[in-house]
Amino acid sequence: MKLKFSNATLAGLILSATCLVNVANAGIIVTQESDANILVDNILGSGITSSNISILGADNAFGTFTGGISAGIGIESGIMLSTGNVVDAVGPNNLNGTSTDHDTAGNAALTALGGNPTFDAATLTFDFISDGGDIFFNYVFASEEYNEYVYEDVNDVFAFFLDGSNIALIPGTDTAVSIDTVNGGNPFGTNALNSEYFNNNSLEEGPFFDIEYDGFTNVFQASFLGLSAGQHSISLQIADGGDGVFDSTVFIEASSFSDDSVGVPEPSTLAIFALGIFGLASRRSKKES
Q1: pLDDT tens for residues 45-68?
Q2: Is 1 exposed, middle or buried (0-12, 13-18, 19+ CB in 10 A)?
Q3: Is residue 11 part of a domain?
Q4: Among residues 1, 150, 266, 269, which one has the fewest Cβ atoms lying within 10 Å of its Cβ?
Q5: DSSP 3-state assignment of 41?
Q6: Whole domain around residue 85: which residue ranges?
Q7: Residue 82 near residue 89 (C-beta atoms within 8 A)
Q8: Residue 22 domain-assigned (yes or no)
Q9: Which backbone phi and psi does 9 adopt, to 5 degrees?
């Protein structure tokens, strides 16, 4: 069966395709931001009152972002905490080992969690009261240590310590999210663990997404139900593990730190199609270079 389109319909299809290409090429936009109050205000949603906000780390280890859907990470906007320079997240991926060594201190809690000395820690801490007694927020973890440093015992480490306990966990488990627990294997495709949650973006196979990091997780939700009445503390932390090089970043969704779950975002059909266009363009440019 042959399909017939009017001139107006064809014009609309061409315009839509052009918009998709623009979406694919838009990419993530990052702004360095080390004002702790601005960062917390960005992620606060309904039913939460914050206080006693503090920050610790290099100024360029913190920032805000937009355009995350077109870049492929599944979160449109929010804040970033990085072991390196947040602006280096901007894609496409063109280097396997993007790295900024701030030569700053690590974090004792992350050292204990990861089992290795830590460096270049970035920490955002605040107290809060939840009107509904629950807490939810969405995040993505990304790293340059994928895939070649999976299972190599020098991994960067991050955690969300709620009243001292980490709630950055693989869904339905008590296992902390990390390079060694969510990956595509090392080498890629060999001995992968929880790979259904992993997105490969390495130069060897891709890149597939408009972001610098060699790999990243799906959108996860950190949560805790049934908080006791009164004030609680959350400490969002990330650090280089084992050495001070090869950057990792955690993205936290805007307005998702709430007493009511906003749900975990799914990539839209538009974003998936746009990413496909980006991937084809990227591969073509590589072949032509």
Answers
A1: 999 999 999 999 999 999 999 999
A2: exposed
A3: no
A4: 1
A5: helix
A6: 28-288
A7: yes
A8: no
A9: -65, -45
